[in-house]
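Write out the bound-state structure for zinc ion.
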Amino acid sequence: MKKQLAAGMVRGKTGIHLFEVPMPEIKQPDEVLIRVKEVGLDGTDFNAIRFNLQDIGEGRDEMVMGHEAVGVVEATGPGVKSFKPGDPVTITVRRGCDICHPCLHNMSDMCMTGLYRERGLHRLDGSLTRFVIEREQYVIKVPAEVVKWAVFSEPLSIVEKGVEQIRIIQSRLPWTCDHPEHTFLSPRWGGCKTALVVGAGPLGLLAIALLTISDIKVFVADILPEDHPRVRLAKGMDATYIDARSISPKEIVADCCLNANLDIIFEASGAAATAVGLIPHMSRSSIYVMTGIPREELMIQIDAARLVRQIVRFNQVIVGSINSNRTHFERALQDLKQITSRFSSLPVAPVIHRWKLEDSERAFATQDPAHIKTVIEVEPW
Ligand code: BGC
Ligand code: ZN
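---
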């Protein structure tokens, strides 16, 4: 049997390892064989290794990691209609439980049983290898204009879902300003609105990008110095930076409210104390979407009566948003066109740390503050 190199977890061992897996072959008519080009790593990947959160499938002793994958179609099964060899593609992460209604309707990101699997994260092999097989329904074509940036389509799809939640939920408010075209479900929904993004990591920066192209006035809070590359990128996208190192959550919100309402808080840091600390300062009828996933434990004391009173009296919504489905990927790829053309002068490439597949162990072990994103370049374009 032909084998190929892969990087991932090994049962009972800590850290990331290189091992061999069988070279995949098309067996079903709807399968697509993909030649992997680039795989991005994110906080979930780093935490999985750091905290040894092994979630390897039954009957297996290894799990290939990597869920932010871009590649090209190498071959297709006889039933595949939408792809041909050479097409640049990306793949979704979650595979549904096949039991609950959301999963049965292509919304496994909203799975209600928790019995889903995720490529490279939960019980399914990911893409840190040379070739992967995927069913046509989970493969998405990448438009030619954004191939170079397509490694951001998975994290951007996470932001797309968060923003979708905001828009759907806040459509409860048909009027927030004088302009009927600024209602949450209209294409120009961002006008006259203010958002605070918490965390200027890869997800936070993509949230800034998406909110800014939607015409929202964006503030971003983090605990970085003003000259940090992440902060420079945030500012390059017209966000106003708030250095949260020496100010309280109350002051953070005061900085971006300027007497107006703070319509949206988009949490993308996973810094639990700040995330919860901001709740008491939410504006009336506003929405707070959380996408960061904190690890470990953190105890805090709150005035529960005051908090509940406020949430009720102010019609506030706090919503969690995990994962993304095909529609979010499709939207991400469309918006990536707009984002990359609007911010084309931003120096993104130099802050991406690229590694070869063979160097995956070092890629996981290295945290260079000058870089904002780690990408494993499995095969150069
Ligand atoms: C991924 C999501 C996934 C989540 C939890 C994130 O890093 O982007 O797709 O659902 O981790 O596993
Ligand atoms: Zn307006």
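---
The longest helix spans residues 153-170.
The longest strand covers residues 31-41.
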